[in-house]
Design brief:
about 150 residues; alpha+beta; five-stranded antiparallel β-sheet; 5 strands; about 45% helix
Length: about 150
């Protein structure tokens, strides 16, 4: 009798854990980050939305053909370009962002889908920024009037 109660208790804990995981995964599939959220998050890491019509088709041709899952994020190996496929109707092309937009991207890698992919992308970008030496700051202060009295 005691063994049966313990087994029922363990089964209950397992079922609760499984249903919680399933509920989280279902929520993640149904509520992906919007294109605006991704644009803001990448913009806070100095990425720009790539909108040059002449070069956009060339950039899109570098993307893998399996970028068809809504909510997928792809990033280049050098972490200079990011692509987000946000349109559930598959009518719009992926949203493309770049840090330095001078050279065409190459070697894309999938970062996953939805919120977890966004978190992974931001973590990698923050890690890269931490490991780079700071760029020399240009002085934005206006030249002071030598006649000014400073306290």
């Amino acid at each position: 009798p005691l063994g049966l109660g313990a087994a029922a208790l363990l089964l209950g804990f397992w079922a609760d854990s499984a249903s919680e995981r399933e509920a989280i995964l279902k929520w993640e599939r149904n509520y992906r980050p919007s294109a605006e959220i991704l644009r803001f998050a990448l913009g806070s890491r100095h990425f720009k939305l790539f909108q040059e019509p002449q070069k956009l088709q060339k950039v899109l041709r570098t993307l893998p053909t399996n970028l068809d899952e809504t909510g997928s994020i792809w990033v280049t190996l050098d972490l200079n370009w990011a692509a987000y496929y946000s349109d559930p109707e598959q009518l719009l092309q992926p949203q493309i962002h770049c840090l330095e937009c001078t050279q065409l991207p190459s070697q894309w890698q999938p970062f996953g889908y939805g919120w977890r992919a966004l978190e992974k992308t931001l973590e990698k970008l923050d890690e890269q920024a931490k490991n780079q030496p700071p760029s020399p700051k240009k002085s934005t202060a206006l030249p002071q009037d030598p006649r000014a009295i400073l306290y």
